[in-house]
Amino acid sequence: MIPYASQIELLHMVITCNCH
After folding, report:
1. pLDDT in the model for residue 17
2. Is the whole-model pTM more than 0.70?
3. Distance (Å, rounded) from C-alpha 1 to C-alpha 17?
4. For the residues of the chain, what is the DSSP string, one character each?
């Protein structure tokens, strides 16, 4: 399982990509 912190990091990357 992916650690909670890693999930937040992944989510942040996705949001940043969508913003650009």
Report:
1. 74
2. no
3. 24
4. ---HHHHHHHHHHHHHHHH-
Report pLDDT digits (tens) over 1-20. 667 888 889 998 888 877 66
Give CA–CA dist 8/14, Å, rounded: 10
**Please, which residues have CB within 8 angstroms of residue 2's CB and are 6 or more apart in sequence?**
10
Q: Residue with structure tokens 């990357």? A: 13
Taken as a whole, the chain contains a residue count of 20
Specify the residue for token string 């399982």. Answer: 1
